[in-house]
């Protein structure tokens, strides 16, 4: 763990079970290679994970079984370790490559910006060579002008100890907000491609492993499963998903299962599979291959748990390589000045653990306190304005106490700036926010308004029920598990606040996941947390007339990411606006503006 990271706390543990094939899985790490310095549940770092994987490989060898290490993308954006350097990721690519990863693929965050996609092609792919799979992703080489596969489309390999043959793919969901140096082919089109069909016709592996930056319950995962199953009735198919930032496991059928392993290096996914027979020519005819048994654990990424699962301790656990990686991270963090204190947060501010609107909500804070102060222009200061940001732009909680340079990137990882349309009739402008939040048919399918929300909402909306609030209103609904089809309840602080069950007092609050396999997936017993839904966007009203609160016209200011939704919402509200009417508000990023606000307003002692 990093110097100064919170010490892990002892808790009741569930064991890992081993099978013929065993997997360690990370996804959506978003640069959190230093771990969570403020949260004991997740305070181990990438160096500890390197040590852990080394021990688990040795154990696999001793047992005569196999271990495969997987990462399913979104390795970048969301932590100072990646975002604070120039160029971005100056240290993280070298740190990340220290883990031996057998299969990896790209997430969408590797592709938002052209320079990140270049680095993916020129650094990550060569770092991992044939282990990097890009089944539906191409890269446009600037030097040659030629569109080439980002990496190989699939990989076939034999496992070290049991000699099982694996065919593996690496998919990205149908993402369309990539920079123009990559092309993401829709999954539904890719699985119809000749190369994919040829693999299915010609290869007869013992098991298919589908890695993907795709939610397990997104339609893309189902489509891949059906395409493989159509031609391989009895083959085990294992999915390793990501993107929606949740812990989840899904049973596709009695020979096909998947795991999704959370976000931000909070979780190391563990999956083990038994019942994989060597495939014979007659299998498909006779249907002789029985069910596979699948077991999963979501390992909280802290040293208490990693020691427990390896049977080691403080002196025997760190390997020279793992220790070296922790030191690399420390040096990088120091040289980037990530612990530099901008101010002192006077209270906790939550993404989803507090009701919106409300005192503890990050979004109430941003719309009431921050936006009115930071979205100001001298030449338009007397014009009333509406200022809109999407909620997904604020990604992580703020804990009471020191707010560091690192925290600015954890909370506001994007380089978004503000744009505006001047002098919009208020009667038109005021309808934009409700339209976006109600997500009506105004928006085409490609403009799903959930893309404005925090990624967790994608899973939550589908698999959790938003129930009425305790006070009978439907404001600030919270999620309650709906049944075995569900995904998760994330994240931990130190106190357990819940209406869903009686917490065990000494347990830290954290993940209490329910998935298709039941409620025993988390490796550590935690007390549950209530999670509240947040709207897609929030809005500040600034400079409105005091008498009736209804100006004639307003400047409609919005964060640039929301523009594709703002324009159709305006049109639907009777405003004949297009992209041509949009002007840049100023040239400062939201991240910079909030950092400056914190410097001025949170200048207490802590
Ligand atoms: O410039 C951006 C890019 C993304 N967002 C928000 O992030 C999520 C997607 O996050 P993943 O980690 O890829 O799941 C998207 O839905 C937006 O809400 C943003 O605000 N600005």
From TrEMBL:
Q: Which domain of life is it from?
A: Eukaryota
Which GO annotations describe the biological process of this protein? nucleotide catabolic process
Q: Which residues form the Calcineurin-like phosphoesterase domain?
A: 22-246
Domain (Putative 5'-nucleotidase C-terminal): residue spans on this chain: 348-567
- Fetch the Gene3D superfamilies from UniProt: 3.60.21.10, 5'-Nucleotidase, C-terminal domain
Annotated keywords:
Signal
| SUPFAM superfamilies reported for this sequence | 5'-nucleotidase (syn. UDP-sugar hydrolase), C-terminal domain (SSF55816), Metallo-dependent phosphatases (SSF56300)
Under the cellular component aspect of Gene Ontology, which terms does the record hold? cytosol; extracellular region
Entry GO MF terms: hydrolase activity
Per its UniProt record, what PANTHER family does this chain match?
A: 5'-NUCLEOTIDASE-RELATED, SER_THR PROTEIN PHOSPHATASE FAMILY (AFU_ORTHOLOGUE AFUA_3G04160)
Could you identify this protein by its name? Ser/Thr protein phosphatase family
Q: Which organism is it from?
A: Sodiomyces alkalinus (strain CBS 110278 / VKM F-3762 / F11)
